[in-house]
Amino acid sequence: MRLILRRDALAGLGTILAAPALRAQSWQPSRPLRIIVTYPPGGVNDIVARIVAEPLSRELGQPVVVENRAGAGGNIGTQHVIQSDADGTTILLGTTALFGVNPIVYRSSGVDAVRDTTSLGLLGQVANILSVIPGKVEATDLRSFIAEAKRRPMVFGSVGNGSSSHLSAVVFMKMAGIEATHVPYRGSSPLVAAMLAKDVDFGFDTSATSTAHIRSGAFRPLAVTTTTRASALPEVPTMAEAGLPGYDLGIWFNLAVVKRTPPEAVARLRDALGKAMGPQTVERLRTAYVDPISVPVAENDAWIAASAARWQGIARDANIAAD
């Protein structure tokens, strides 16, 4: 039996560890990159993509543009990424809804982001905020709002059928024992406009798009959907604190490429994204009310698959299907 000296073993280990780095260095994009946002401009998805695009462009030495391809709850943009050339230049701005809800809501579409993409890294997370409209709703806290909703008919808005906004409301109503009429809008901007026009009684939208209107007094926040308070609105309680223990529905964002993308391209993109997500980018995301989230790259796909499975269970239990 040949003995392997310690120095030889260490040298071999160094070669193995260096392999991903060497692959990353060997690949460079040959043309500008696109980040596909599956919702209209102006919403939190669009904001996150544009914040990340600039530092990612610097790291890759190529322009990175944001392209909005809305429709079918995000499936149009997702399908575009999956069907694009697997050269690493077409990137999906992934969301909880795309990965965790759409395979249930759009069962016949054949689009499955968990199955068909590889994650480059998580970007951040936000809470949805349950906001009511002053002048339409008297309640000033969650318990009194539930009581009011049991006394009279209410209408709520979401950013789309089957979205995390919609499911946040579905889970809330189920746990609270109330009912309300659902009006789905095509993204955050139309929902915010409807809430400002007092077309609905309440809605769930992200801290990124709700905070300014909450601070202006146009919306009255009652609770956030995560188990910890949102850094943008530390005075707003969690659902559990406000009276619904066990409620936990956070929303995350990631970047992903089609699964058949060459390993060297994936390695280079992950490396570039890791460097792009430096202190300045994180601070810009915080300014947009998006809190950082940290999951090791090696565990990224498994973490997303687990989160997606949980959301799919919620969508399945709610029996939600596309309009």
TrEMBL record:
Pfam families per the UniProt record, alphabetical? TctC
The opening ranks of the lineage are:
Bacteria, Pseudomonadati, Pseudomonadota, Alphaproteobacteria, Acetobacterales
Under InterPro entries, the record lists: BUG, Bug_dom1
Q: What is this protein called?
A: Tripartite tricarboxylate transporter substrate binding protein
PANTHER family attached to this UniProt entry = BLR1237 PROTEIN, TRICARBOXYLATE-BINDING PROTEIN
SUPFAM superfamilies per the record?
Answer: Periplasmic binding protein-like II
Indicate the family of this protein: Belongs to the UPF0065 (bug) family.
Task: Tell me the domain of life.
Answer: Bacteria
